[in-house]
Amino acid sequence: MIADTATVQLLVADEGNRRALASVVDRHFTAVTAEELREADLYIVDDASFPQYRDELDAHKRAQDPVFCPVVLVRRDRTAITVELPDPLTAEHPILVNELMDAPVGAEVLYHTLVNLLTQRSQTITLEEQNARLEQFAETLRHELRNPLNILAGHLGFARETGDSEYFDKCETAVHRMERMIDDALLLIQVERDRVEAESMDLRSLVEDCWDVVSVPGPRIGIETDRRISGDEYRLKQLFENLFRNAVEHAGDGVTVVVGDLPDGFYVEDDGDGIPEDRRDDVLVEGYSTEESGSGLGLAVVSAVAEAHGWHVSVAESDAGGARFEFTNVSFV
């Protein structure tokens, strides 16, 4: 709940006001106790202290913009201070005072007012994080698409000059790689945007279905689990399909993939060449790929699906020296 973690600073000069307001803040929020302006999620001032803190609050709100930083002004009876609350849709700068309340303020009214303002702040923080993520994602995709586009352009030039079908085959490979990048990119956006629709399913059957989708003659699968798992079936299929595809592409036709149980989760491992220890933190990040045919997003999809389910994922070495992905904090039924 927002109230459990939110910080509120009381910058109130009137002692009677301070005691009444503090009784609510101390009970439901984390109070920031200091006379000078400190970092907090919400600020409460009164008409006696407002002139002292006005410029600091204004500068602080501008620095945090576009993240919403709410300020509540409590106005005492018979005070001469007047504050005009501008229209937020037309204001060029962050509004300094977001809520004007007349003392004495009822405890329940104050609590619900603060929760509403803090909810708005939480929403703007989430939005900014999503915007930053999208910017990073767009930059990664732009960078990753450049390589196959350059390959495509180069081979098209050779194809025109020579008419050799080999260059057309290489063009086709580059196009397929870009198609996979786009598919993985759309899936990654969907995973991060949509809510998990959890249901109970048989983990063995899920793994078998996913292996059938990506397997080719040669690679083998071992399934050492009989558990039922709780999760979003569509997303979990993407998780396993990307893991299996990654194993087949990196370890080759002779690879054996095993899915087995952990005390609070499961693992997926192979007997390929493995992932160097100094690269294991990188493989779940967007843009990581060691294969020319890879999208650079497949394992980022795996990480995003796990995170959406509240799971923890780590990369290790299998007993055979291959790659091992461990998923913990998994819900079983």
Provide structural commentary.
Keywords: Kinase, Phosphoprotein, Transferase, Two-component regulatory system. This is histidine kinase. The protein is an alpha/beta fold and 333 residues long. It has three domains: 2-127, Response regulator (Rossmann fold, 3-Layer(aba) Sandwich); 128-193; 199-328, Histidine kinase-like ATPase, C-terminal domain (Heat Shock Protein 90, 2-Layer Sandwich). The protein has helices spanning 2-5, 15-28, 50-64, 107-162, 165-193, 203-214, 233-251, 298-308, and strands at 7-11, 30-32, 42-46, 71-75, 99-102, 199-202, 220-224, 228-231, 256-262, 265-270, 312-317, 323-328. The chain has a five-stranded parallel beta sheet, with helices on both faces. Strands 7-9-10-12-11 form a five-stranded mixed beta sheet. Helix 2 crosses helix 4, helix 5 packs parallel to helix 8 and helix 7 (233-251) runs antiparallel to helix 8 (298-308). The radius of gyration is 28 Å and the shape is elongated. The model has no long low-confidence stretch (mean pLDDT 85).
